[in-house]
Design brief:
About 35% of the residues lie in helices and about 25% in strands.
């Protein structure tokens, strides 16, 4: 039986505050926004000092009075090379953060782990900040709702369809999808410098991100997927986003960009900058 608690290490690393009194104001900063029937949110996974405001604007649209049964957190792996697999874990029953513990839906996780192209592996989940940095926002916004962490990498299109259909088979109309992704990682440290000879690096990064965001908003799954494969861009959750567009391909959702920002806006340094966006899908 799963009894273990996964202790999130990112509060101790300074990625988000270690006390509820400091953390909750960051989460709820923009929670005065109108509420809606949110089906999915794309949100970042950087330190909250950089992306907390953007994250808050996306999560602010969720109606806490809606009865969600589970939250699928789908993110990329930063520590393992994954191809044509989706990793889940039924080892940890709880994920512990500054805001106490968050339940993991181990029944759904175990069921997924038995399906084609899914693997049960706690070692993939354990260190992954793309999952852990979403948990405090979910804990506070939807207290008591369990999560199903899923970590993906690059997928052939046929495999992506299978994974998407498998996730849809265990989701309900009351399930929420959280897609964990930062956008462009620009600079020498990311080995991505196509704009270093341009006068306005920030504008070039913005224009590139804007094109990707527009493809998401326009709902063209194939155009988005082709663009991702052709440009080799550094949107780290690009395959998780593609999987979401596949999952929701037959659902009529309204897609809205809630916020966009860059780490360079805070640091003043666009020579090494990461972009963040929050996008909501409402019914």
């Amino acid at each position: 039986m799963p009894v273990s608690v996964l202790e999130s290490k990112y509060a101790h690393k300074g990625w988000y505050p270690a006390t509820p009194g400091e953390l909750i104001p960051i989460i709820t900063k923009n929670y005065t926004q109108p509420k809606d029937n949110v089906r999915a949110v794309i949100a970042p996974h950087a330190g909250y000092a950089y992306c907390g405001d953007t994250f808050s604007k996306g999560m602010s649209r969720i109606d806490p009075d809606k009865t969600y049964d589970k939250v699928f957190i789908i993110g990329p792996s930063h520590y393992h090379n994954i191809h044509n697999k989706a990793y889940v874990c039924d080892t940890y029953k709880w994920i512990s953060t500054t805001l106490d513990t968050c339940e993991v839906d181990t029944v759904t996780s175990k069921h997924l782990g038995d399906q084609e192209h899914f693997e049960l592996d706690p070692e993939v989940l354990y260190p992954e900040h793309s999952i852990q940095l979403h948990v405090p926002f979910i804990q506070h916004t939807l207290p008591g709702v369990p999560v199903v962490p899923i970590i993906v990498g690059k997928m052939d299109q046929a495999v992506e369809h299978i994974i998407a259909n498998t996730i849809k088979s265990v989701a309900t109309d009351n399930s929420l999808f959280m897609i964990s992704s930062d956008f462009t990682h620009y600079g020498e440290k990311f080995n991505y410098t196509p704009y270093k000879d341009h006068v306005d690096t920030r504008q070039q990064i913005h224009d590139f991100d804007k094109h990707v965001i527009d493809l998401i908003l326009n709902g063209s799954y194939q155009d988005y997927r082709d663009h991702i494969n052709n440009t080799h861009n550094t949107v780290c959750g690009r395959h998780a986003i593609s999987l979401l567009l596949n999952i929701l391909s037959n659902e009529n959702t309204v897609r809205e960009e809630q916020d966009y920002s860059m780490s360079g806006d805070l640091s003043g340094d666009y020579s090494n900058s990461v972009s963040y966006a929050s996008i909501t899908f409402t019914i």
